[in-house]
Structure formats: structure tokens, C-alpha cells
Amino acid sequence: MKKILLFFGLCITLSLACNLPQRVQPTPSSVSTPSTSLEDQLAQALDELATTGKVTLTITEEQIAAFVRQQSSTSENNLQNLQVDFQENRIRLTGTTSTGIMNSQVEVIFEPYVSADALQMQVVSAKIGSLPLPEKTVNAISQVVNERIQQLTTIQGKPLNIEEVRVEDGQLSITGSLQ
After folding, report:
1. Ramachandran category for residue 88: left, alpha or beta (phi over 0 → left; psi -120 to 50 → alpha)
2. Which of 26, 56, 70, 177 ranks highest by number of CB atoms within 10 Å?
3. Is 75 helix (H, G, I), strand (E, B) or coil?
């Protein structure tokens, strides 16, 4: 049970990481680099959103991993060796968790998509060690993550219309506008 709660915490943290950038997206012409901090990109994106009403944010695996690590370090979970991989329209999050004397590998694979102008994340695979989590648990994780995404994509009381989300070549790109 403790592992499942850790897993939920991990999913929520990833949700924060993936959706926080949606709230604050840089200019459509800008290209992010690993040396640009996620916080700087978010600030630029808010400026662009206020100016033009539309933004595209492109973030790297390293930026998301650093953000998730930071969020994990402030929580009670014990996730270590966090890795984030963006490939073929999927986000793969892996890490190691330890409970007592046992270490287990955690893997969650998300597939982002746009539905009704909102970013959604479907958990397509989740396992601790070699054991897949039950479908009911995976669906619950997807629901919690998507509820958090909805909260994070509301800026000053206005929902952000997500027009496109792409995951490719180590980058996550999200395009949106204010309603």
C-alpha cells in the first residue's frame, strides 16, 4: 500500500512538472536549451501569453527531471535516480524507491493528448518492480493527474485552451491560448 501511495505522489509530481509549463509558455519562435531554467521559460511564457494571448512552450527532459527531483525532495517520498524520457508521443518516468530494506524500480508511462481544449495524460503503463499496477489503480492515477492538470492550466481564473501537445526528440511542446 505504501508503494501505491508513493506511486500516486510520483504521478502528481510529474503532473505538476508537465502542466506547470502549460500555464507559462514561451514565444512560439523561441527554442529552449538545457541551460535555460524552467522558471525562466515560465516567466517568458507568461509575458508572451499576456502580450499575444498564445504561446508555445518547449521543454527538455532534463528540465522536467530537475523540476520533478526538486518536488520529490520536498515531499515524503523516497524516489531516487529519477529519469524522464520523451519518445514517440510518450513520457516515460523511471526511478528507484526504497521501503525498509527493499529497493524497487518504478516506471510510469504517460501519453499526453488534447481533449476538449484541455491537456490530458493517460497512464498507459505503470509498474513497481516487475509487477504492473492493477487497471483500477492506473485509472485512478490518470484521474488524479488530469484533475491536477486542470487546476494548473487555469491562469487568473481563465482556463488555458490547449491546442497541441507534442512529445518528440527529447522535447515536450505545448501550444495554447487563453479562452
Report:
1. left
2. 26
3. coil
Per-residue pLDDT tens over the stretch 32-42: 344 467 778 77
pLDDT tens figures, 120-150:
999 999 999 999 989 998 998 889 888 877 8
Helix (H, G, I), strand (E, B) or coil at 82: strand
* 80: nearest Cα among 92, 69, 67, 71: 69
Would you say how long the chain is, in residues?
Answer: 179
- Least Cα distance to 20 among 35, 4, 37 occurs for 37
Residue 126 in grid coordinates:
505503470
pLDDT tens digits for range 144-157:
888 877 877 777 77
For the record, the C-alpha cell of 134 comes out as 492493477
The conformational region for residue 169 under phi > 0 = left, psi -120 to 50 = alpha, else beta, is: left
Distances (CA, A) of 33 to 60, 87, 116, 166, 178: 7, 18, 31, 17, 25
Which amino acid belongs to residue 4?
Answer: I
C-alpha cell at 91: 513520457
Beta bridge partners of 100: none
Query: What's the pTM?
Result: 0.71
How many C-beta atoms surround the C-beta of residue 173 within 10 A? 20
Rounded CA separation 179/176 (Å) = 9
